[in-house]
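Comment on the following before class.
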Amino acid sequence: MSNKKHEKRSSEPRIHIAKRDDMIWYKSWGVRLIAIVLALILCALVIVLLTGYDPIKVYGSMIYGNFGTTRKMWNMLQKLSILLCVSLAVTPAFKMKFWNIGAEGQSLIGALTAAACMIYMGNKIPNALLIPIMTVLCIIAGMIWGIIPAYFKAKFNTNETLFTLMMNYVATQLVVFCIVFWENPKDSNNVGIINSSTHGGWLPTLFNQKYLLIVLIVAVITIAMYIYLRYSKHGYEISVVGESENTARYVGINVKKVILRTMALSGGLCGITGLLLVAGTDHTITTTTIGGIGFTAIMVSWLAKFNPIIMTLTSFLIVFLERGAGEIATTFQLNHSISDILTGIILFFIIGSEFFVNYKITLRKKHKEEA
């Protein structure tokens, strides 16, 4: 009998990984802070070994790249706001376990709609009327782009990941078609600055700050999304559907309706992002207007565990690293690969820290019989 017990204990793994209960917020952020410190130490070693530069000066250039001048700070806030807006857009769908990988295309359709409004109506009606019209149309365009895959998911149970991903390519080709139609066919990459002399359809500046309105709009959306997900009936239904569709049906929730409504919300917010980029920042439309933000937003949403307030911090961290890496490459005349390596190391540690937040590792004690 004792031999069987001995064999059983010997076959048990020394290391046991188990799911944690929800960790207290300050402990979870302590784990993430430790991960960032370790990442910075490793990055310092990489800097010394590969470049020979002083790591403190390199890190100082990252701070300068974001806060060195007023212009740099506002540019950072604009990037943060756009990334945060897309992250907020994909969050309701992800919380419902609808894997919306199409934020890039939904935002691009919103941007295309804004550009079309500026081109065809920019010099015909005043901005006080044009901007509300643009806003409504951009939201509708994004909603349509979100509802299409949602309908097929709800009706035919199609794979929403592939469907929304393919919609990105369709949106890109629509932009290419419109650019060729609007501009010289020899230049299919850019239509130039739209209404550069009249500013028709451009978002207004507040207190001489070009991006202040964008920051305020996204701040309002962030608070509204937090309230919507946490306290509204719709937010509760999203959570229930995400936990179990069968349970949702059992308690009387119309799952198909929730899927359509949630993806309409996600698409509409992406449409607003396109409006902010074209009418508030770029004043033009290209196939790279969104610039991969739709995919970065997925990481922001997951790292924040679908909490809109925490997304502000994760968005800031991503933008800070991205802009800081660019400043390193410029200031020290380094290849962009070096700055990308540093960014990758830090993100790897941050993402890896989520394992220790969600799981605990225990070591099985060695029994006397095994000694």
